[in-house]
Every structure is written in structure tokens, then in C-alpha cells.
From TrEMBL:
Molecular function terms, GO-annotated: ATP binding; ligase activity; metal ion binding
Organism: Dyadobacter chenwenxiniae
UniProtKB keywords: ATP-binding, Ligase, Nucleotide-binding
Domain of life, per lineage: Bacteria
Limits of the ATP-grasp domain: 121-315
Protein name: ATPase
InterPro entries: ATP-dep_AA_Ligase, ATP-grasp, ATP_grasp_subdomain_1
PROSITE patterns, sorted: ATP_GRASP
Amino acid sequence: MARALTFLCISTYFKGNDFLKACKEAGNKVFLITAKKLEHKPWVRDSVDEFFYVEEDEDGKYNMNEIINGLAYVMRDRPIDRVVALDDFDVEKAAHIREYFRIPGMGQTTGRYFRDKLAMRTKAAESGILVPGFSALFNDDAINDFIEKYPGPWMIKPRSEASATGIKKMENAGELWETIHQLGDKRHAYLVEQYKPGHVYHVDSISYNGRVIFSWSSKYLSPPFDVAHGGGIFTSVTVPFDSSEEHALETLAVDLLKAFGLKHSASHTEVIRCHDDGKYYFLETSSRVGGANLSEMVEASSGINLWKEWAKMETAEAKGDNYKLPPVRKDYSGIIISLARQEWPDLSVFNDPEIVWRMNEPYHVGLVVRAKSREKVIELLDKYADIIQKDYHASAPAPDRPAH
């Protein structure tokens, strides 16, 4: 009898329980590397065969040499067949481990397209995909050329942080140069990009054998940057089915993931439709399930749990079996999330039958709704936003680097 496959999962954050569970249910052995400080989180322990806890340094980084040495010891009697990164911050770690131990899957070059904002923009532009004007911060003359070519305002973004962390917006060249100088010796780890006002969308997908087999488009009603920096309420809603919007977003995501060489993974891609020219521009992508509980929203409308299907697809691929996506439903869904003043807010005031998920995190209020019509979803989100703003909402300044 063939031995069970062993999946090594890595997560710097407490997330991915659905993946771990589905991976175990598919008959695999499951190992998890995570931070020591997350040891007491409610992981699905009966789905994980072994935990490996890592102490982070003061920057929240893992010592990869220690991890490689530890895994080399483990692999003497417990071979590892696949390595899966459950969070953005783990993509490089997983690629490093795969390359070192020659385990199949995404290597470091492809991994960079999904982590390094400079690499992903350069590759997208080379592949004929529209991107807002951008420049590395390596060379002063190149930055001045960029300023001349692309009028402000501009954003300075870290090349490898997830979410809207560490992003700053500048209105004029003086301000921009001042920010660059403040970065000092770290400026090479950032890029500058032209700020284009517009609607921001996210496309959540699953790729199998290099093809996108599932793609779901949604529109942020309040973009993540505005929420992180303006203390707003986070909302997103499914894009109208069979609309020109949906077709444009799906086409861009498919072209992009093909150009980046994504073989087998979930992915989350962000796109902006600019107010000035109506065109769709690529913002960023990642080879994992979208954060901010977007998977709950995608599942509410499509019936597809991205975490579970990713685990089932990875297992089928590793075994050389065929993977088939379950039937897809087409309902509309929306999500609303806000920081709350109360530690455990009373959500009983939200009692509409359309509510399919409630957030269970201290100092947060969050809901997912599902309905046959998009108008109904938006009407409910608007109603909840008013209630949350009045009775629950709290805001905190955006961190310079993510908190766990």
C-alpha cells in the first residue's frame, strides 16, 4: 500500500484551518510550522499530525537556516512531499524550503512575482498588462524621470509587505523626496507608484495545471488603503454576473497568472478601474487565499470554499489524480468588517435572514450576507454600515508593519 503523502504547511498568522482540515480529510499527513506565540490559538489540532513552533526575531522574521536544519532532521525518517504557504509572508519561506530539498512546487523566481511588488509590476508590464506608472527607488535620476512622466499624487509602497501596511501617499515632489530620504538605507525595499483614483476589485481564483479553473470577482465598496489609513469600514460585494466588468477582471487575472507561471494554487489579485480612463490596471497579486475573511464571502456566493478546494486540488496533483471543481452556485454576497469599541459586540441587532456568517474576533464586528440580487446585498451593507458607524465603530492608525 502506498504511504500517505506528507504536506508541510507554513503559517505566520493564525489562519488556514479549513485547508489543514481538508488536507487531513484527503488522507494526507499534515505538518504545520507556525510562530511559537500562536501555539495556543484554536488550531484544528486533530487535523495536524505534528506542530513545529518557531521563535521569531524582533522584526517578526524566522531564521531560515534553523528551519532548514530542523527539517533536515525531521526528513531523515519522515519524508515531506509538498510544502504549502498559507499566508503571504510564508511564500518565500516555502519556496526556499522547496528549492533546498528539491520538493516539487513553486520556486523562488516564480515566488517573487507573488511577493515582491516591484517584480510583479515589472513582469506584468513586460507581459502587456496595464499597470499604473511605477519606479524602483534605486536611482535618483530614474526617480526624477518618473516624477516628470507621471504627475502626482504618488504612493510609496514596501515591496514585500501584505495588505495596506506601510503605504504612504504624497502630493508633490518635495514631499516624495522627503519620504524617500526618510527611508534611508531601506529605500531599495520600496517602490513609488502613480496614485490612480478608481474602483478597486479583487479576483479570487484557483489554478490547476497552469489553468484558472475558478475565478470570482468582487468590488471593494471601501478600498483597503482607505480603510487602513482613514479608519473606515471594510466592505466588498460580488461583481454583477456576466457583466463587462466581470469579463474584464477575469481576462486580466487569467492573463496575469499565466504570465507569472502559477501552476497549482489559490490566488488573490487586486485590480483598479481608473476613473479618468475607465481602464483596468493591475495592482497586485498573491498565491494564497485572500485575507480579511474574503473566503467566507466567496463561499457564500459561489458555494466554493477556496481553502478546502485548494487542499483537495494540491492532493490530487501530488498523487497524479484528476481534480474536479464542485458545481458552482451563483448568488450575490457581501462582507462588512469594522473594528469595534466593545470587546465582544452584541450582534443580535443584525438579524436579517440573509446573514450567513458572523465574525468571532474580539474588538471586531463582521458579517457576510447572501441574496439572489446584488441590490439587496448592497442595501443590507449600507444599512449595517450606518448601524456600525453609530454604535460600534472604532478606528486605529494603520501600523507601519503588520501586527499578528
